[in-house]
Amino acid sequence: MTTVTTVRRALLVLLSAVLLGLLTTTPAAAHTELVRSTPKDGARLEKAPDDLTLVFDEAVDPADIRVMTPDGDRLPVTRMPGRGSATVRVALPHASGDTLALTWSVIDEEDGHATSGRLTFGIGTRTAQDRGGEATAAPAPFPSVRKGLVAARWTGYLSLALFVGGLAFVALLWPRGAGERRARVLLGLAWTCGLASTVASLGLQGAYTALGGLRDALRLATYADVLVTEPGIALAARGLLWVLAAVVLAALLQGGARTARSPGWRVGAGAVSLGLLRATGMAGHDSEGTEPTWGAVADLVHLLGVSLWIGGLIMLTVAVLPHREPGELAAVVPGYSKLAAVSVTAIVAAGLVLAWQIVGSYDALLHTSYGHLLLLKTGVLAVVLAAAWCSRQWTRTRLDLAVLLRGDAATVRPFGYSVAAETGLVLVVLAVTSLLVTANPGR
């Protein structure tokens, strides 16, 4: 039995097992939701109550819950002793008039997503339903803030992939590239955008959870509020790791190829890279399934595979191919081809585990916005893999000829086209991934 046949059978068995899990596993929990309130929404009350009880579908931190009056005043929220961690009490103001209207929002402790709604009570003889024309829509995050958060995450994913994958490409396949201007510029740009996107994400996350606008993303108070939440702590940790990554990058830029071959530098670069990958994954949905530990491991493997593939691909496209030097092509292209094959295998395997972990059912895959985005991502990825297959075929059949012809432009051009198409499509995959992070998981 050939190695190719063995790999195909193993992938088929893995795919069958995951699909079976999708069909039989109960759906994973999504974002925090309000189960009930006391008094009930829309109830008619003889007089305004002194407090309001909210019960959620999972444990919540009172600091992550905002209950606001129409005037914009935030009401005190405390835990209720002996009622569990999913129940809180809200101290209500003195209500004047025949209506008590409140808006609420809660931040999911795992991924920082905001869920919000509106509660209205009638005071006196008229009910809240009698005043249907006076009702307003439930509060929701500003579309501009959500778009900004998606853009910041897309930039963060791309920067992470280019930085981690670029370092690995230089260290493992192309140490001489540490002295090449284009490679150095790419790594520097990746670090700059990575740090900037993390700082921007902190402000945008704070504005998103507070249901504020873009101006709120620039206020120091917004940063202070988000830094006490779990998503804020994860973003802060990522920012500190980007600062630490500056030391790794500076050492490479100063030492060049000699540093890239140094075991000590490789260990340090690997440790910082793994930290960045894990801190990025902590802001996702990997912990929301039935097996959070497996979800975290799969997410780390997935991000690592994506980074090695995309970062190396961009390095190959921008820094290696334009030179068309026969020695570089012969040394770098076959090595990257093998690395990309291993990375894609890891991406597919870990992605299947994450789909099982997060979506939870075949029905959710087909009938939720999260499932639709996941299918879109899978479809684009299939096209990317087709382009990658073309690149691999060129490596197997035409690379030797390109080397013999000393990097002849006509011979190398088809490979450049397929690699460029592959690079453009993976940027689309990253965009869809950014939307997935802000979408509700399948129920």
Protein described:
With 443 residues, this protein is α+β, with helices and mostly antiparallel strands. Helix content is 61%, strand content 10%. It contains 13 helices and 8 strands. It has helices at 3-24, 143-172, 181-209, 220-226, 230-255, 257-260, 263-281, 292-320, 326-358, 362-367, 369-397, 399-404, 409-437; strands at 34-38, 44-45, 51-56, 65-68, 77-79, 87-91, 99-107, 114-123. Strands 1-3-6-5 form a 4-stranded antiparallel β-sheet, with no helix packed on it. Strand 5 (77-79) and strand 6 (87-91) form a beta hairpin. The radius of gyration is 26 Å and the shape is elongated. Mean pLDDT is 75; it is low at 1-29, 127-135 and 399-410.
What are the SSEs and their pairings?
Layout: H1 3-24, E1 34-38, E2 44-45, E3 51-56, E4 65-68, E5 77-79, E6 87-91, E7 99-107, E8 114-123, H2 143-172, H3 181-209, H4 220-226, H5 230-255, H6 257-260, H7 263-281, H8 292-320, H9 326-358, H10 362-367, H11 369-397, H12 399-404, H13 409-437
Parallel strand pairs: 2-8
Antiparallel strand pairs: 1-3, 3-6, 4-7, 5-6, 7-8
Helix pairs in contact: 1-9, 2-3, 2-7, 2-8, 2-13, 3-4, 3-5, 5-7, 7-8, 8-9, 8-13, 9-11, 11-13
List keywords for this structure.
443 residues, alpha+beta, Immunoglobulin-like, 2 domains, 8 strands
Q: Helix coverage percent of residues?
A: 55-70%
Q: Give the tally of structural domains.
A: 2
Portion of residues in beta strands equals 5-15%
First-residue to last-residue Cα separation: 42 Å
Task: Give a quick precis of the structure.
The chain has 443 residues and is α+β, with helices and mostly antiparallel strands. Helix content is 61%, strand content 10%.
